[in-house]
Amino acid sequence: MRDDTRSAVLDRSYTRSVGSSLILHPSSLVAMIGYPPIPMQVISKEALNELPIRRYEGKVRLITTVPDLEQARADIRQEQVVGLDTETRPSFRKGETYLPCLVQAATARAVYLFQLSRVDVIPVINELLAESRIVKAGVGLAHDLRQLKEVFPFTVNNAVDLGVIARRRGLGQSGVRNLAGMLLGFRIPKGNRTSNWAAPQLSPAQVAYAATDAWACRELYLEFEKRGFLQG
Fold it and tell me: Rg (Cα) of the chain, in Å, rounded?
């Protein structure tokens, strides 16, 4: 996940206003606008570094077997809000780019990590993305989904970009780490952001990092909801 940069690109290039809603392309990404303005809020690097570090401490399932996959499907089907994120192998040379290789989905009970090198996971991800009953909450979702569509085709419904909503609410920073610091009061470590996400076997540190990002997106959605940020 790229923090503020990814959301800024989304805000400039993938939005259009329709009535009281901000429609993000893909067209089903919707973030409501028209709320009363609040003062601009930011968190400094120094203040963020003083916050306690939090990592996801619940159950994490790296999907490697058919029973794992069926358990993930059953849990996700029970959910109303799923935190969604992707990871991509980093590029270090000019002109070098890669597509997402990991999808993370956080429910209230667990975080599921789907390695896209396993083609059997794609139907479960497709079902989640298409299900209009389930909110898919994340930061920079238009970028994630645009890249993901180059890996496999899908339809997406009811996906909410929290970075766009944060900016419309007057927050001066919209990356997942800054939002977690401002609204949740903790710091998410960055340590494994540039590690090799395409590796056949992810390290425990990579698993913890990926799970934390998806979990934080779900927690932020719930916090936005509690604060009334999602109200039109």
Answer: 17
Among residues 2, 83, 44, the alpha carbon closest in space to that of 178 is found at 44
152 by DSSP, 3-state: which?
A: coil
Structure tokens at 77: 């089907």
pLDDT the model gives residue 191: 73
Determine how β-strand 81-88 pairs with β-strand 100-106: antiparallel
Cα 179 from Cα 181, distance rounded (Å): 5
DSSP helix/strand/coil, 139: coil
The pLDDT of residue 33 is above 80: no
Cis geometry, peptide bond prior to residue 26 (ω within 30 degrees of 0):
yes
What's the mean pLDDT in 19-26? 34
- Secondary structure tally for the chain: helices H, strands E: 8, 9
Beta strand 59-62 with 29-32 is: unpaired
Window from 120-124, 128-132, 190-194, 196-200 with minimum mean pLDDT:
190-194
**Among 12-21, 82-91, 189-198, which is the least confidently predicted range?**
12-21
| pLDDT at residue 30, as a whole number | 42
Spatial neighbors of 43 by CB under 8 A, at least 6 apart, are 173, 178, 181, 182
